[in-house]
C-alpha cells in the first residue's frame, strides 16, 4: 500500500529537468519544472542579483509550476554557472536568456524578473520583443531615481562583509569555484555602480502585458512603480502591504495567486482587446 501511495505521489509531482547549455561562452545552468501548458508558453524566471534560483524562487516554483512549465537559469557567475572573463551586465544576461530559449527551442515565453532579474527582463523586452508574451516585474526600477540616493551610495564603499549572509551561503554551496567569491561580489557591485537604466521613451515602447509588483516598504519607491505603470501601454500594478524587498522571496503564497490570475486571465484579456 505504501509503495502504491509513493508511486502515485511521484506520478502526480511536476517533473524537473536540470542541465547545462552552451550559451555565449558559458555553460549556463538551467532547470525546467512542471509540464507544458495548453498554450505551450512557459514562464521564465530571472533571479535577483547575487542570488540563485533557490534563493530567489525556491518557494515560488512549487506553486506556479503546477499549471505551467517553468524555466529558470542562473546567470553568469551565479549559482551553478561558472564565471568567465567578462563583466556582469544586464545586456549580456538578456542575450544569454534569449540564447538559452533558442537552445531549448522555445519561441515565446512569459518572463518574471525579481529585482535585478526585472532589469534583465526589461532589457529582453526592448532587445527581443518577439520572444516576450508578457512581463512580470517584481521590485524593479527603470531609472536611478526609482530608489533613495542612499541605495546607490552604498555601492561606493561596499565590502564583501556587507554581502547578505544567505546569498553568501548560497554562493559557497553551489558555485563551481567558491574561492571566486571576492571576484563575484566585486562584479556584482560594479554592475550596480554602472546602472544607467532606461528613458521613459524606451519604457513606452514595451507593448506587452505587464504586471508590476512592489512592496510598500520596498527599495523601489511606490511612486516610481506608479510612474512605470503609466508609462507602459498595458500594465497593472500591485502594491503589497507590509512587504520589503527581501520579503518578496519569502511570501510566495501572496505572489503566486496574482501571477496565476495575470497569466491565465490578464494576458488573455489584453490579447483579446487588441483583436
Structural overview:
The chain starts with a helix and ends with a helix. The chain is an alpha/beta fold and 275 residues long. An 8-stranded mixed β-sheet has the order 1-2-4-3-5-6-7-8, sandwiched between helices. Strand 7, helix 10 (222-231) and strand 8 form a beta-alpha-beta unit. Mean pLDDT is 92; it is low at 1-12. The chain has helices at 2-12, 53-57, 61-64, 90-103, 116-127, 149-153, 165-174, 181-193, 200-204, 222-231, 247-250, 252-273; strands at residues 16-23, 26-33, 43-46, 70-73, 109-114, 132-138, 210-217, 235-244. It has a single domain (14-268), classed as Rossmann fold (3-Layer(aba) Sandwich). Helix 4 (90-103) crosses helix 5 (116-127).
Please outline what is shown here.
The protein has 275 residues and is α/β, with parallel strands linked by helices. The protein is 42% helix and 20% strand.
Spell out the key features of this protein.
8 strands, disordered N terminus, 42% helix, Rossmann fold, alpha/beta, 12 helices
The level of helicity is 40-55%
Report the top-level CATH class.
Alpha Beta
- CATH superfamily placement: Alpha/Beta hydrolase fold, catalytic domain
Mean pLDDT across all residues, rounded?
92
Amino acid at each position: 500500500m505504501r509503495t502504491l501511495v509513493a508511486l502515485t505521489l511521484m506520478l502526480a509531482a511536476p517533473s524537473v529537468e536540470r542541465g547545462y547549455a552552451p550559451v555565449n561562452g558559458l555553460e549556463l545552468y538551467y532547470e525546467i519544472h512542471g509540464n507544458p501548458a495548453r498554450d505551450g508558453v512557459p514562464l521564465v524566471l530571472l533571479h535577483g542579483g547575487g542570488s540563485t534560483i533557490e534563493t530567489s524562487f525556491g518557494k515560488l516554483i512549487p506553486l506556479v509550476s503546477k499549471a505551467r512549465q517553468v524555466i529558470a537559469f542562473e546567470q553568469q557567475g551565479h549559482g551553478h554557472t561558472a564565471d568567465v572573463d567578462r563583466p556582469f551586465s544586464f545586456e549580456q544576461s538578456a542575450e544569454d536568456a534569449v540564447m538559452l530559449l533558442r537552445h531549448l527551442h522555445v519561441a515565446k515565453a512569459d518572463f518574471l524578473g525579481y529585482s535585478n532579474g526585472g532589469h534583465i527582463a526589461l532589457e529582453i523586452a526592448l532587445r527581443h520583443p518577439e520572444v516576450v508574451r508578457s512581463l512580470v516585474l517584481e521590485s524593479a526600477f527603470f531609472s536611478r531615481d526609482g530608489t533613495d540616493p542612499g541605495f546607490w551610495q552604498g555601492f561606493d564603499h561596499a565590502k564583501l562583509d556587507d554581502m547578505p549572509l544567505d546569498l553568501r551561503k548560497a554562493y559557497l554551496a553551489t558555485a563551481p569555484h567558491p574561492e571566486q567569491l571576492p571576484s563575484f561580489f566585486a562584479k556584482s557591485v560594479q554592475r550596480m555602480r554602472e546602472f544607467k537604466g532606461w528613458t521613459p521613451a524606451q519604457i513606452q515602447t514595451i507593448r506587452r502585458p505587464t504586471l508590476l509588483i512592489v512592496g510598500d516598504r520596498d527599495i523601489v519607491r511606490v511612486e516610481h512603480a506608479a510612474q512605470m505603470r503609466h508609462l507602459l501601454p498595458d500594465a497593472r500594478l500591485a502594491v503589497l502591504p507590509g512587504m520589503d524587498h527581501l520579503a518578496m522571496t519569502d511570501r510566495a503564497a501572496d505572489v503566486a495567486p496574482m501571477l496565476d490570475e495575470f497569466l491565465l486571465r490578464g494576458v488573455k484579456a489584453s490579447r483579446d482587446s487588441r483583436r
